[in-house]
What does this fold into?
Amino acid sequence: STAPVKVTVTGAAGQIGYALLFRIASGQLLGPDTPVRLSLLEITPALKAAEGTAMELDDCAFPLLAGIDISDDANTAFDGTSVALLVGARPRGPGMERGDLLSANGGIFKPQGEALNKGAADDIRVLVVGNPANTNALIAQSHAPDIPAERFTAMTRLDHNRAVTQIAQKLGVGVSDVHKLTIWGNHSATQYPDLFHAEVGGRSAAEQVEQEWLENTFIPTVAKRGAAIIDARGASSAASAANAAIDHVHTWVHGTPEGDWTSAAIVSDGSYGVPEGLISSFPVTSDGTSWKIVQGLEIDDFSRAKIDASVAELSEEREAVRSLGLI
Ligand code: NDP
It folds into this structure.
């Protein structure tokens, strides 16, 4: 049997952590043949709650779960880890300025980047879920100079999955009939869900809907879905965010299907005019080891303007964390 793979989850006692850990332990992240050793990182006041979650994990008697460690020390939690899911982050409080938010998150993601750099396994893959996810990933990445930058990613798979369902429901097809959908840019309200390259039934999805619906219903519904969930549920999305994190890593490790792609925020190599080094969402494929940006897509003026607007926001966030000395 194979040796257990260490998977670290930060913010493990939070809502997303609660929806995530049981699925990792049951084998849905790395597959049914890979035992996992879970490492839960939490802030000190949340350690007791994390212990409660660990008790429940024990009580599931998952055959693939080789052990659980709990810590409030990043160096311990990331030592030898192969998969790091960075969920814990500082949420924007009432009246909080962007600079305060970025500073607070710099205080979390800088030491985590350093700890990953020091102790993570050679095959480390990092997914940042905690918001502002793209820029938090950039902060961690910039403090891990010995880890290839491409191993740091941020999650736009939830936005991707939301967009897939919206177009499938509109066209009365199943979600499996939707291919080549892309989320571009930042995981924020400026993100651009692209139907022009998406295919349903072998034809462009955009050609099967009215431009009016695409612009005024589809894009805002996807971009504002998080707020709509909070409004309906009285709490932010957690199970669907956890599901998307599982999807992201599962696709990274197992690869994208031939002829299709998914969306992930990865370090830009300058493709599609996205400044090098920004962690921005692209159409991506995985061969089971690394992500590759799908090349050669034609970008029309409508898409160009949407992509540029979201990428401009990422550039501003990078400037802001630079001037705060966080990268
Ligand atoms: P959640 O588990 O609900 O959310 C965690 C993070 O995920 C937030 O930053 C949240 O952003 C983000 N997120 C990204 N996408 C989504 C989405 N689609 N829907 C909802 N959230 C999304 O937060 P909790 O407050 O329940 O738990 C956070 C935990 O993290 C706490 O237990 C806290 O103690 C811990 N923490 C741990 C740290 C560490 O390990 N060092 C550091 C900081 C906190 P948004 O707020 O924008 O919704």
The mean pLDDT is 97. The longest strand covers residues 279-286. The first helix runs from residue 15 to 25.
